[in-house]
Amino acid sequence: MRLLLGALLTLLSQLALAVLPAPVLQALRSADIPPSAISVVVQSVEGGPARISHRAKQPMNPASVMKLVTTYAALDTLGPAYSWRTELLATVTPRDGVLDGDLYIRGSGDPALSMEQFWLLLRELRSRGIRDIRGDVITDRSRYALLAHDPGAFDNEPLAPYNVGPDALLLAHNALRIRLQPTEGGAPVLWSEPPLDGVQIDNRVQLVAGDCGDWKDTLFAAVQPAGNGALTLQISGRYARDCGERIWNVAPLPHADFFARALRAMWAELGGRITGRVREGVVPINAAVLGGIDSPPLAEVIRDINKYSNNVMARQLFLALSPSGVPADTVGAAAGVRAWAAQRNLPLPSLVMDNGSGLSRTERLSAYDLAALLRRAWASPVMPEFVSSMPVLAVDGTLRRRLKTSPLAGQAHLKTGSLADTRSIAGYVLDRNGQRVLMVAWLNHPNAKRAQPVLEALLEWVWNGNPQPLPTTD
Hints:
By secondary structure, the protein is an alpha/beta fold.
């Protein structure tokens, strides 16, 4: 029995070796990653026999490549021109610069409500002559169900901006943008945007000599109470002079507190006053609209999501796929994606989604299923918007520094992903013969951090235009 089992394992190993190109196998050996840890599909965008199909139907964690499912489903469902609207409303008519009642701010889940956009919205209110708000400001987040989210649960980094959860009134990605500028003295100058009422920065950063390197890893942030509702954001650590001027994003506060403090500070800068509290509630049916602002169209939003792998924007977009008319939640969003796939006759049996961003331990997808989605997307009316949302190899987004001196530079639109035990890549490559090819590859293994040469070797093999299919191992 043992001899039979050993022979079977040897045969499976030989089959795996037969299906992967020699440079990929060499890179896997160098990284100490077995062929059984990687899934690959390479195929013409027109379909036909796969050039490579290795463990293609095995569900695996795709990391941020899952964003391709979320963005294509949204683009195909909602349309490239879809936008979100944030509104200001009241139940009383402003007079003589005074709103003698409550102001309501209704969110719709806009993934791209920036500080600049919010300033324009508040400026519209000031242009109507309103200066004093003598009631409360009531924020309506009812478009989303109450979503429990622990920002430190994923990797014990609660202030990391990529760990921000979704919110129906998400402002500036709920992140504080801290600018660091070296000086001739002993500490860099720090300043931040957006302004936050009652929040002061305690700068304890030391300016040091040496290479810039992974400069973010040497900085630390902590929030401390300062009395009477005020807070101190203490920034400490070391910052190399050679780094020059940089921007560091942190997410120090819960959504409601961040929004309230930003609102008060920005309204005060515009010369306005708020007498009451900023609290949560629901817009009454008799409220009249005082102003509103629309997000950029979805085609632009997904460019930010895919080119820069923005997790919080992907979470927001995922929730937009939940059924309308009810508070959005992740269960409804996942059901919405499945309903869309069924309507498009696009079976995705391996698909498991929990937030749509890929920043997850539980999301799963097979290379075979994503390849089917990429073929469908290539033939769809929204193909130009979808493809252009991906980073261009060696040109922009998360791939701007990859393979810059290779003939591959500029020849591929690809989405990448990485977690501690995952590396992934998927998208479209224009090979040296002028043929458009789709590729999907990801691996789950403790040595995933060594896997970049593996994926680059595969990319080069695809670009070289090897047309003969290799034996499949599915």
